Amino acid sequence: MNKTIKFLVEGEDDGKRIDIFLSNNLSLYTRSHIKRLIETKNLTVNSICVIKPSAKIKVNDRVEFKLSQINKSKILARKIALEIMYEDNDLLVINKPKGLVVHPGAGNYDNTLANGLVYKYKKNLSDINGSLRPGIVHRIDKETSGLLVVAKNNYAHSKLSRQFSVHTIKRKYKCMIWGVIRPLNGRIETLITRDKKNRQLMAVSDNRGKKAITNYRTIKTFNKKDIPKISLLECELETGRTHQIRVHLKFKGTSLLGDKKYGKKKMNFKKINISFLEKLKNIKGQALHAQTLEFIHPKSNKQLSFESQIPEDFKKMLNFLENLGG
Prior knowledge:
Blueprint lengths: L2 E6 L9 H8 L5 H9 L3 E3 L2 E2 L12 E6 L16 E4 L3 E6 L16 H9 L23 E7 L2 H12 L4 E9 L6 E10 L7 E4 L4 E13 L7 E8 L6 H8 L22 H8 L6 E9 L6 E5 L4 H12 L3
Parallel strand pairs: 7-13
Antiparallel strand pairs: 1-4, 2-3, 2-4, 5-6, 6-7, 8-12, 8-13, 9-10, 9-11, 11-12, 13-14
């Protein structure tokens, strides 16, 4: 079944291409899918049908876009424990654990955050991004823990998506990396695209992909006897590209503790603290946690700010490094 989404163009979008505007506001639809819908007469601007994805929009244009479901499959409700940090009639903020996929995809259609949301909230979730992504405004990786905002209705979803597209939502991550990043504090701005050799990975590119910006600061560096140098970082995202922090760290010559995709395949330790190795083995996934989330409430316009505790495996490694002598 199709549904129509309506937008009123605001000042910051004056002169933008219509496909870029829609892609920014419908974050989980690919731009190519949006282009196909435009070209097959699913878009009107001021009640006039537009079939060119490159058409420009102006302030106060009334945009109506008919969305077809990306996937017609019905999502299955599953009882999944959810750590809810905040909830009202329009949205909720969840602290996602490591190991939980955000929405159904290849190989996992039943045990995701979205399945748990459907079980708890049934149809009281936004459906802008299709039947398999109810309420899902943004994502974090399966093996990354931390805060996510979920929309209960399409108005809230649209307003939250707008904040993501204009980079006014604040997202700060804590992470542990190998070695010391130089400079200690900085800004990484690159293009990120699919890796040419492995399509499951992302990579920095000189001339293709989407702009990605990560601001980082080194909180502390651990340089102890019998363990490799390790740094604790805070990373603040200006954009939200797939695997962004992990790709940018690789670009800077380092990687997250526990990152099996972007880290070194083999690490050779000569003299090594055995307790450190045990703590390292106990890290589930990568040592990356979406700790802080700040945004404007879509109805009240009040600033909301949330912070969550780092997971236990991350905390144990950090405490071990803090208390290690020498």
